[in-house]
Amino acid sequence: MTYILAIDQGTTSSRAILFDEALHVTAVAQEEFPQHYPQSGWVEHDASDLWSTVAGTCRAVIERAGITAAEIAAIGITNQRETTLVWDRETGQPIHNAIVWQDRRTAAICAALREAGHEDMVTERTGLLLDPYFSGTKLKWILDNTEGARARAKAGKLLFGTVDSFLIWKATGGASHVTDATNAARTLLYDIRKGRWSRTICDLLDIPMEMLPEVKDCSADFGVTRNDLFGRPIPIFGVAGDQQAATIGQACFRPGMLKSTYGTGCFALLNTGATPVRSRNRLLTTIAYQLDGTPTYALEGSIFVAGAVVQWLRDGLKMIRAASETQPLAEAADPAQSVILVPAFTGLGAPYWNAECRGAIFGLSRNSGPAELARAALESVGYQTRDLLEAMHLDWSGESDHAGAPATLRVDGGMSASDWTMQFLSDIIGASVDRPVTLETTAMGAAWLAGLRAGLYPAQESFAEMWALERTFTPQMPESLRGEKYRAWKRAVAAAQQV
Ligand SMILES: Nc1ncnc2c1ncn2[C@@H]1O[C@H](COP(=O)(O)OP(=O)(O)O)[C@@H](O)[C@H]1O
Ligand SMILES: O=P(O)(O)OC[C@H](O)CO
Hints:
Elements: E1 3-9, E2 13-19, E3 25-32, E4 44-45, H1 47-65, E5 72-79, E6 85-88, E7 98-99, H2 107-115, H3 119-126, H4 135-145, H5 149-154, E8 158-161, H6 163-171, E9 178-180, H7 181-184, E10 190-191, E11 196-197, H8 199-205, E12 214-216, H9 227-230, E13 236-241, H10 242-249, E14 258-262, E15 266-273, E16 284-291, E17 294-303, H11 307-316, H12 326-332, E18 340-342, E19 360-362, H13 370-397, E20 408-412, H14 419-429, E21 432-436, H15 441-454, H16 460-465, E22 469-473, H17 479-498
Parallel strand pairs: 1-5, 5-13, 9-12, 14-20, 20-21
Antiparallel strand pairs: 1-2, 2-3, 4-7, 6-8, 10-11, 14-15, 15-17, 16-17, 18-19, 21-22
SN-glycerol-3-phosphate binds at residues 10-11, 80-82, 101, 241-243, 263-265.
Function: Key enzyme in the regulation of glycerol uptake and metabolism. Catalyzes the phosphorylation of glycerol to yield sn-glycerol 3-phosphate.
Keywords: ATP-binding, Glycerol metabolism, Kinase, Nucleotide-binding, Transferase
Binding site for sn-glycerol 3-phosphate: 11, 81-82, 133, 242
């Protein structure tokens, strides 16, 4: 038997998943690692935790499956995006903790760049906004705040990378300093139309281009693992940012196909084909995947709090012990009450991009309790998704060669296991929601990219035919109620932003 090893390096844990020749999951290993919050709004990871949990889970999954490294044809890597690392070319030692995508420390840098009138130029090239979310200003911050770093970077002694680059550097023993086009597209430094690093933006942020990795297709030769890691070298043949890997795993290969992943946050990607669509509604333009030198673009809506609101009910309020308890609570909630929770714990992402806004609860009465709060938490995920889809619809229907909103939303991620949430989602967006049999879509996307190059997995069309539906949720809510509830949500978001 031959296998593909997929590495999914996420925000809270690292996972290693073995896929067999039929693209079935054979074994999984997962390890969490600590989050560091040095100041309010700052989020860091210790780079050695990222590496040790990846190496550890890879070894564990091989042992669990009872196979040898010789049976692994190739490795595919997918990763939390935007998280920024700088390390020494000689020693491989990072000069700072990884600054995580959620980290807001560069808000002032972004504001200053916006005020100086640079946002339009940056958006035109990168498809992104001047928001602390992306890597560019995080990298600038590390260079500004570590003595001598900029000079060492100019001299070629320091390297920059997103998590994929760092893991490949470690796995290949420093032989490869590379990334893929989807990760590059999240840095704020990459021109997604020209397919190369932007000198103009690097100059603007004073980032020496010597430290940037080489950008490759998603299915390409990223190097081979050093001998001592698995006892024999294994090629790394696939790389994609996790949301793009999920888009691939969901086989959203045709323009107009749309997926939404419900993990800690929620990320919806709409395939827009060979042309990048510039959003007029504050969505992001990004690369969905790049194969054979050709990028396929996407519009992306990013919500920072989705499943995290359920975690808050569990860990913050201690209202539930397990995420799945939200469903019976929501079912028991009083239909006469309209409690609305705006989960802006770390500001609002797309399409609002309000870093200062904080969470709020509206419509409480003396009878409101855990059931109404749980329902409001699950509903907030549906409302936020509708916000994204409305913006996408406006951008997409403005394009001349196609019309109308995408008819179906493909979902995945931990929270998509909640039937109640998926039914409400379908009700509030007024479209069908398709949940696939395999919810390991992110890892599957990375595995397919690697297996494609290894000659183990079929080409795009045949792979798309393997996508299997588990359940479709169709809208059941009367149109009038859908409109009424969504209007109440819009009023609540507006009010939360005025506090
Ligand atoms: N049955 C459920 N109902 C509601 N939320 C759930 C359920 N199961 C998991 N979740 C939520 O999904 C998230 C975990 O999803 P996962 O895809 O593993 O996230 P991530 O990759 O961001 O760590 C958690 O935030 C959890 O609260
Ligand atoms: O690690 P996840 O699954 O929370 O994904 C994080 C995203 O890539 C951030 O853009």
